[in-house]
Amino acid sequence: MRSEPRHGDVHARFDAILERYVAKAPQLQVWADGPGINEYQYPPGSPDQPFHAASVGKLFTAALLFQLIGEGRLRLSDKVVDILPSETCRGLFLHKGRDLSDQVTVRHLMMHSSGLADHFLDRPRKGPKFVRMVLDEPDRMWTPQGILRFYRENYTLRHPPGEGFHYSDTGFILLGLVIEACDGRAFHESLQERVLKPLGMRRTHLMFYSRPQEESPMSRLFFNGIDATEFPSLSADWAGGGMVCSPRDLATFTRAFFEGRLFPPEILSENSSFPNVFRRGIHYGTSMMELHMEGFMPTLKGYPRLRGHLGILAAHAWYDPGTGRVFVLGFGHNRAMGRSFRSLIRMLAVLKAEDAGGRP
User: Fold this and answer.
1) Helix (H) or strand (E) segment spanning residue 153
2) Which of 261, 215, 218 lies closest to 242 in space, CA to CA?
3) Degrees (nearest 5) of the Cα angle 161, 176, 151?
């Protein structure tokens, strides 16, 4: 007979796991909830401090798109050139001298199968990588159109639309513009009215574009050892990952996203396949990731297939469809990815043992 996990015991073991890493990641924040957890927060008793969620923000963009689809104002099969001005799409979808813009759909952008390069990390035709510019020119404010100009000057399609997978932040800049065109207002306004207000997310906002209802200092973020917390150049993240969320707020959003409180549940079920491999152990679908733990290590076979998204700053937001558990982690450093996954796996091991009625 299985015993119910003991919240205090689980919390104490979670604390022991995370205390290994806090010296190297003092800005570390974790929130977990669901059966056998009961609102775990690390550090214990800490304020619900917002942190930069990086590409976890793509889930917010996906939520808005799924809402518009549910309202009949958008379809995944819609061509991007039929939604955005021709000047916006000009020069973005060139492949071997051909303009393939009339083949690119909303689905292609959401699944990273449009062929677009990634302006953030891919090497440009000339000059430094974009991420290097973000660090070297910290006071530069980026607009979506400015990012698209940078793209046109430096990239062409990696492959024809629908014929491959290549993760692209550029595609999500276009999706942000699609949302603005379909919803008739600024991207951050759609976020506020459609997601943040309905869910009571008072400590969440789109960095440099809006303000939270309850303000508090953001947890520090580091990229390659540089404290970039207040860099205006982070405005480049926008619809591809510019959300700043408190751990509790992000857990609230993640649960609402996967439990059908933001858009019709059938839309999620129709888009819950993960045919592409982002990295070993991380599969990608329609703006969502699914963790296949056995891809990290064969001994992890049988661990839950968590769904959600990952951010480059070792930010995590995951939902377990089997138990309804939610896991939010914010390590605040691009060099902490390995530590963040080890923490998550060890937390899951505690719960797996508890669910089986024993100890790890």
Assistant:
1) helix 144-154
2) 218
3) 55
Amino acid at 72: G
| Nearest alpha-carbon partner for 310 in 275, 349, 284 | 284
| 196 secondary structure, DSSP code | I
| Residue 238: predicted pLDDT | 98
Q: What is the pLDDT at residue 51? A: 96
Residue 225's alpha-carbon distances to 75, 202, 235, in angstroms, are 42, 30, 19
pLDDT in tens, 155-203: 999 999 999 999 999 999 999 999 999 999 999 999 999 999 999 999 9
206-223 burial string, b = 16+ CB within 10 Å, else e?
A: bbbebebeeeeebbbbbb
Let me know: does 316 contact 340? Beta carbons within 8 Å.
Answer: yes
Compute the radius of gyration of the chain from its Cα atoms: 20
Half-sphere exposure at residue 278, Cβ-oriented, CA atoms within 13 angstroms: 21
pLDDT < 70 stretches in the chain = 1-7, 358-360
Q: Which helix (H) or strand (E) is 315 found in, with range?
A: strand 315-319
Residues 101-121: tens digit of each pLDDT: 999 999 999 999 999 999 999
User: In the chain, what are the domains?
Assistant: 7-58+187-355 (3.40.710.10), 60-65+74-183 (3.40.710.10)
Q: How far is CA 149 from CA 152, 153, 173, in A?
A: 5, 6, 12
User: How far out from the chain centre does Cα 176 lie?
Assistant: 14
DSSP codes, 57-86: GHHHHHHHHHHHHHTTS--TT-BGGGTS-H
> In whole angstroms, what separates CA 182 from the centre of its chain?
22
Query: Helix, strand, or coil here: 250?
Result: helix
Query: How many other CB atoms are there within 10 angstroms of residue 162's CB atom?
Result: 15
Answer whether 309's CB lies under 8 Å from 289's CB. yes
331: tokens are: 């390590």
pTM over cut 0.85: yes
